[in-house]
Amino acid sequence: MLGEQLGEIRGKRSMRRVIPVDGGIKVEVSFEESGKMLGIDVMNFGTYNSSMRHDGSLYGEGQGGLMGQDGSMATWKGSGVGKLQGGGAVSFRGAVCYSTSSAKFARLNTVAGIFEHEVDAEGNTHTKIWEWK
Questions:
Q1: Architecture of domain 2-132 in CATH?
Q2: What dihedral do alpha carbons 42, 47, 51, 57 form, nearest 10°?
Q3: Could you tell me if 46 and 60 are in contact, meaning their C-beta atoms sit under 8 angstroms apart?
Q4: Domain ranges for the chain
Q5: Nearest to 93 by CA among 57, 124, 44
Q6: 11-21 pLDDT, tens per residue?
Q7: Which of 29, 40, 82, 96 could be cross-linked to 113 through a Cys-Cys bond (beta carbons 3.0 to 4.6 Å apart)?
Q8: Distances (CA, A) of 32 to 12, 13, 35, 42
Q9: Smallest Cα–Cα separation from 124: which of 46, 9, 6?
């Protein structure tokens, strides 16, 4: 069951590269976003790798960090499934877990998050995260 919305952040894909693997390709994507997490102004940055599966869907895994304006940090790891959209856009749905020693982000240590991550054809990103109860 979905709980409260934990955050919403927007930004831009900063890098995309193709990595050859046996039987196909893997795409590595880095991004930087800003917005709110737990009501705190944050910068979110990360990198994920996605591979196309036999049915045309995508599977991705990534990691990154959140940084508050005061330098407080939380790291995250996530995975999800996605699909290609028109013009090179992509849409992912998945789960994310956090780790932090920061008092500001401490609640994230006990939360499993569910996310929607959208990237449009111009590389603009929009991510929403909810608590998974």
A1: Beta Barrel (2.40)
A2: 10
A3: no
A4: 2-132
A5: 57
A6: 999 999 999 88
A7: 96
A8: 6, 7, 11, 11
A9: 9
Pick from 93, 66, 62: which is nearest to 77 by CA? 62
pLDDT of residue 1: 86
Q: What is the pLDDT of residues 94-111, one digit of tens each?
A: 999 999 999 999 999 999
pTM: 0.93
**CA-to-CA distance for 93 and 86, rounded, in angstroms?**
17
Bridge partners of residue 40, in order along the sequence: 37
Alpha-carbon gap, residue 9 to 74, rounded angstroms? 15
Output b/e per residue, 74-93; b: 16+ Cβ within 10 A: bebebebebeeeeeeebbbe
Distances (CA, A) of 55 to 79, 100, 123: 18, 37, 24
Collapsed DSSP state (helix, strand, coil) of residue 86: helix
Res 101: pLDDT: 98
